[in-house]
């Protein structure tokens, strides 16, 4: 069952805010109208599933995916490459650091709440995290979607981050981008458009020997 399948997972912050009221409602209404209580119980289990936060380890050297989802953006921006990952509602929504470094700026920006898979989602509410790495500057962006209304960064200015470390969570549907440090080229990418990746585990880029 869904509820039992999430018991072995840790959960992202915010799970109590959504899950506890639903389970309380399920317990109360279940005495009066059992079918409604059963539905509410399933909804509570689905919320637990959404906020799950399983352990992840990088599958090898290189830059790891900052989020679990599907690759929807691979774009050159000057001397750097942007990789965008769309998170479906069924994906794990805990974001992870793609590379070791130091956070130089963590900025929250208000914006729209368009579907995260749309091109205009770049104008959505977001948190941009500038990181200094041994290979140069990088950036991670946590972008809210149409349903997502809360972005929870776990880090702040001046903090050191380790590759695959948890760095934030977005409630209900979102997108996470990473702008690779300068020096990474298309030849270093290990992913393709539409590919499914796992946060903190899948390797999205690795410098070739020639670099």
TrEMBL record:
The chain crosses the membrane at residues 20-51. It is an enzyme of class 4 (lyase). The keyword Transmembrane helix applies. InterPro entries: PS_Dcarbxylase, PSD-A. Its EC number is 4.1.1.-. It comes from the Archaea. One of its GO terms (biological process) is phospholipid biosynthetic process. The keyword Lipid metabolism applies. Keywords: Cell membrane, Decarboxylase, Lipid biosynthesis, Lipid metabolism, Lyase, Membrane, Phospholipid biosynthesis, Phospholipid metabolism, Pyruvate, Transmembrane, Transmembrane helix, Zymogen. One of its GO terms (molecular function) is phosphatidylserine decarboxylase activity. Pfam families: PS_Dcarbxylase. This is Probable archaetidylserine decarboxylase. It comes from Haloquadratum walsbyi (strain DSM 16790 / HBSQ001). The gene is psd.
